[in-house]
Design brief:
This protein is mainly α. It has four helices and no strands. The relative contact order is 0.11.
């Protein structure tokens, strides 16, 4: 290989690294937000924390919907009630929540 080929490969590698780094940051942010959503989902069981959890999850909106739908199937009636209240506040933003 000549010097031009090495330079070209180097620049392609740098370009790939530059293009992929924002994806790594987004993945980290998504994981953090999912962890926080799951934390607030668990707070729905606690009557003292439920109101704050419902408000937070409703403010998150659509990203919280899959976890809330799963929470509707929980054996704890407090969890199901909190999930239903939150989904009611969010409204029909998810295809599974479209009633009509």
């Amino acid at each position: 290989m000549n010097r031009y080929t090495y330079k070209l490969r180097f620049h392609v590698a740098i370009a790939c690294l530059c293009l992929s780094s924002p994806l790594l940051a987004l993945n980290s942010t998504w994981a953090q937000s999912q962890t926080q959503i799951n934390s607030y989902i668990q707070r729905l069981k606690n009557p003292q924390q439920r109101s704050a959890a419902v408000d937070y999850l409703a403010s998150v909106g659509k990203p919280a919907v899959p976890a809330l739908i799963k929470a509707l199937q929980d054996s704890d009636p407090q969890m199901r009630a909190g999930a239903a209240m939150t989904l009611g506040k969010i409204g029909p933003v998810h295809p599974k929540l479209q009633l009509f």
